[in-house]
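Handoff note, outgoing to incoming analyst
You'll be picking up this chain. Sequence as last confirmed:
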Amino acid sequence: MSTTQDGTAPGTVAVLGATGCVGRSVCDELLRTGHRVLGVARNPAPHTRTHTFAALDVAATAPERLAGLLDRHGVGTVINASGGWGTTAEEMRHAHIDLVERLADGCAATSRRVRIVQMGSIHEYGPVPDGVLIDEHRAPGPLTAYGLTKRTGSEHLLAQTRAGRVDGVVLRAVNVCGPHTTAASFLGAVVARLRALRPGDVLTLDVADARRDFVDVRDLARAAVAAVHAPVTGLVVNIGRGEAVPMRALVEALLHAAGVDGTSVRLNSAEVASKGGGWTCADIRFAARVLGWRPTVPLSASVRAMWETAAGTTSLEVS
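Most recent structure output, in case you need it:
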């Protein structure tokens, strides 16, 4: 493999948000498939020792400094797996808009035309009626602050791509499950509460009467890596399983994976109060066509991996 003057390999893939659930899995998939990785996040984590790492808050960094970092490491593609739900509009704007604007400007200032794979969200479409299969042409409905800021960031990247400054593609992902899922998510919070359950305790869980599309984070990572090389630019691609699963069924699968006795948990019905409405189901036919991608990890294996990694175990079979 040829190298640049400082000894780094050309075509390195930088992963923003490398310490998060999605970014961590993306880094693992890149390494597994033979890519050179530069992980970027505000602070390192133990698992970032497997690849080159740079501590940087991209949303607060001058574009010229970011461009210098990308050039020094021969970065040809950036996968933006950063961001989160946030608790205030200011936090979400910083994570989903300011960061994307700085990222686009930094990539445009490099010595090459950098590809950006933006990890977007199905919530950029807004809530949809039950039974609707969400395709990439759907016009957005009323948006929450999360959906609006995510969509604004995605649209900025697409506009910068049309202007020829960067080479961008947006992957709009459904809810994520699987190994190392954040406790900020509903299923992640359930895992944390189950782990804290003591003998004799009874845990009461309020579960919304909702059906949502969930994809394993390892499948999402495979889609991101496919997008690094796929000849698709300036477009949105939906990533999911293409099926709406009752939330109660997912919780029951998690209880089974945890080996929790049915007498230890009480499930109560609850009103839908999420940021994404009561129904999500992605149309993933376009992803199959342009990325050659399909989900492969069964939800049962995904839920089992959530439980196991929460305890620090490493049995992550996907059969």
